[in-house]
Predict the structure of DUF868 domain-containing protein.
Amino acid sequence: MRDIVSCFSENAVNVASHSSSCSSYSNNACISPSSAPSIQNSVSSVYKLVLSSTLKQFLITVTWCKSHSNQGLSISFGDDNHDPAPAPVPFRLNTNSRFFRKKKGSKLPDSSEEKIEIFWDLSNANYDSGPEPVDGFYVLILVDSEIGLVLGDVAGETVSKKFKINSPVAKVSLLSRREHCSGNSLYTTKAQFCDSGTWHDVLIRCSVEESEGLFKSPVLSVCIDKKTVIRVKRLQWNFRGNQTIFVDGLLVDLLWDVHDWFFNPASGDAVFMFRTRSGLDSRLWLEEKIAQKDKDRVEFSLLIYACKTS
């Protein structure tokens, strides 16, 4: 598993099926533990751009990272050819004010084919506990004079000031988001599983609970919007598995691998993945005509790497 990179009712999140190792679906709301969640160390998002002029497709990877002494942003580019080789990183910015004070500027990184321009302003960016700013910033990428990737809450205002209204705009899709965190066995994040969907609160927790009044064993719970969507008992034996859930009418495959939490504590990395399905069978309860329009919807994957250090 490590290599796998409008609601229809008030219960928009449900379980479609489950493996034999999991308990049945629980309608009980997930009770948040009292301990603080793990801390994000890095967040990487992969975007697919399709230029309106040439229809050429390529990928942009945006990575925000944070450590005890450093905080930064890096952007890399690559063709959409499924090449497993990592793309070069033509742009890297250290946003820690103690070492690098240029939090606003522009750059033309070297590119063999496309003309790429990067504009950014992080001087007023606000951060929570993670490496990714939440507001007060923008990152804007132009490709061959087309408006490509636009990030940040003040990006729209920046685009209208810097560029013409009729400037061509590339089509952008978010393919995947990868989050690395460290701390305890509690993790929280937010996810949007499709461009037209809403943002959801995701909580993953591993706790020790009493089993049938005889002994205590680890239990994995995954909650979306405070509803428990999976609950895996005897996790030390069921450390790998998968299950299908419904989110915003979409089928989402949820996979987990917590082997290293039990058998390789020196590494301690657990992996969780949420992956949407594409095609006509990806949406539920839709008329065929509506589903036909959605047949080319891009798949999305959310990968969470959790290092348990406490």
